[in-house]
Amino acid sequence: MQQRPPRGRRPVGSGTREAIAAAARRQFGAQGFQKTSLRSIAAEAGVDPRLVVHFFGSKQKLFLSVVELPFRPELVFPAVIGDGGPGVGLRLAEFLLTMLDSPETRSVMIGILRAAASEEEAARLWRDMVTEQILLPLASRVARDRAELRAALVASQVVGLAMARHVVGVPPLAQTDQETLATALAPVLEYYLTGDLGDAASLMGGLRARVP
Amino acid sequence: MQQRPPRGRRPVGSGTREAIAAAARRQFGAQGFQKTSLRSIAAEAGVDPRLVVHFFGSKQKLFLSVVELPFRPELVFPAVIGDGGPGVGLRLAEFLLTMLDSPETRSVMIGILRAAASEEEAARLWRDMVTEQILLPLASRVARDRAELRAALVASQVVGLAMARHVVGVPPLAQTDQETLATALAPVLEYYLTGDLGDAASLMGGLRARVP
Predict the structure, then answer these.
(1) HSE-up of B129 (CA within 13 Å, CB side)?
(2) Are residues A18 and A94 in the same domain?
């Protein structure tokens, strides 16, 4: 990588970075992470591809710089989590599965996942984004002991479900309908958010409270 | 890719594929997936790099072709799963966390995960390997209703934990000790394997049986 690409087709001004970001956002959204190249983004922005590398480093990092979460956690969590009482697991499972089953939101979430898995620097960017925008807001809402660990356990199950169902396509998960999956996941998410993580008896007690 | 690389440094005979596979297995094992290149493997095997592409297609596919699971499911599952009775969740959680926390076995499992996340063809190979070598043997042991879905749900949680703890390094998960995590995961794995997936009351009942 060089500091000053000699043949940028566009002067390196304050608008260049934004032009690249806009082209990247459009192409990643329209055709996904895999089929988008630094070259095609540079062409749309009217710059030398090396300028894209200069500003953003790599395709993974460019993706994470321009991508926006398909939902606004601060707006969504109050409705989904509420006071964290009974039913929170099912509401969260239904919300997440809806996000993953809709092609538009899924392509963003899976693109983020692929980028994070393929490069360590991208993984670090992803971790900061997920921690600040999702895990900390979620943790501050569930507001019991070990709130961050609880949010991270939820994240681990959601990430694994997205990988198994949509990236790898593990046979039964890829074909199971949304309602069946939401029902199967609900007690797990509720346990991670509100159960006693160290004690199966407390998990039992927490669940007993909501069983007729 | 071309059918007959013109300048292979070694005659394309029956031993060539094996020589490449042996070099790949050694290098992936010694330095991991990321730092190993097709070029370095070809150099060790004494062949043109294009011959590696000819035989194996890509680094991801080569990795999945030569890698071996760090444990033999048919030997491990009888001890870990047993008859699937109470305690199976904790035994499985402890086994998996031990595999993931040991540097040697972790590097293989994380390498598999990265390869699967980065390329669709690699994901397909990974899916076939995990399904045949892990999920079906596991499903045939737990042997209740929806055995394959249960095994896949377990796989989703394990994959997500590996991603969050070891690939992305989500803060609390990356630092949480093995025993705490095993205790937190145990009821979930036990529920996926033996609980009633559609009914929180059955999850409660299943857990009540093992609480003093």
Answers:
(1) 22
(2) no
Residue B200 maps to a domain? yes
pLDDT at residue B13, as a whole number = 63
Count CB-CB contacts under 10 A for residue B55: 16
Q: Is the pLDDT of residue B208 over 80?
A: no
Report how far residue A176's alpha carbon sits from residue B148's, in angstroms, rounded to the nearest whole number. Answer: 11
Residues B41 and B83 in one domain: no
- How far is residue A206 from each of residues A87, A187, A191, A200, measured CA to CA in Å? 11, 10, 8, 10
In this structure, are A44 and A126 located in the same domain?
Answer: no
Q: How far is it, in rounded angstroms, from Cα A21 to Cα A135?
A: 26
CATH of residue A26's domain is 1.10.10.60
Is A173 in contact with B149 (Cβ distance < 8 A)? yes
pLDDT of residue A5: 47
The CATH number assigned to the domain holding A184 equals 1.10.357
Residue B80, token pair as written in the block = 């870990």
Q: Residue B43: inside a domain, yes or no? A: yes
- Same domain, yes or no: A36 and A139: no
The alpha-carbon gap from B116 to the nearest alpha carbon of chain A, in Å, equals 7
B86 and B31 within one domain: no
Q: What is the mean pLDDT of residues B5-34?
A: 74
CA of B43, closest CA in chain A: separation in Å? Answer: 24
B45 part of a folded domain: yes
Write down the pLDDT at residue B206. 43
Contact A130 B170 (CB under 8 A): yes
- The answer as to whether A64 is a domain residue is no
**Residue numbers of the domain that contains B195:** 73-208
For the segment A5-47, what is each residue's pLDDT rounded down to a tens digit? 444 455 556 689 999 999 998 888 777 777 789 999 999 999 9
Residue with tokens 């249960």: B150
Same domain? A33 vs A109 = no
Residue of chain A whose Cα is closest to the Cα of B186: A200
Tell me whether residues B168 and A201 touch, CB distance under 8 A: no
A201 touches chain B (CB under 8 A): yes
Q: Is a pLDDT exceeding 80 seen at residue B24?
A: yes
Please give the tally of structural domains in chain A. Answer: 2
Q: Which residues contact B46 (CB under 8 A, 6 or more apart)?
A: B9, B10, B19
pLDDT tens column, B86-134: 899 999 999 999 999 888 788 888 888 887 887 777 788 888 888 888 8
Question: Is B169–A127 a contact, with Cβ atoms under 8 angstroms apart?
Answer: yes
**ipTM value for the complex:** 0.79
Q: Is some CB atom of chain B closer than 8 A to the CB atom of A58?
A: no
Residue of B nearest to A188 (CA): B188
Q: Do B164 and A170 touch (CB under 8 A)?
A: no
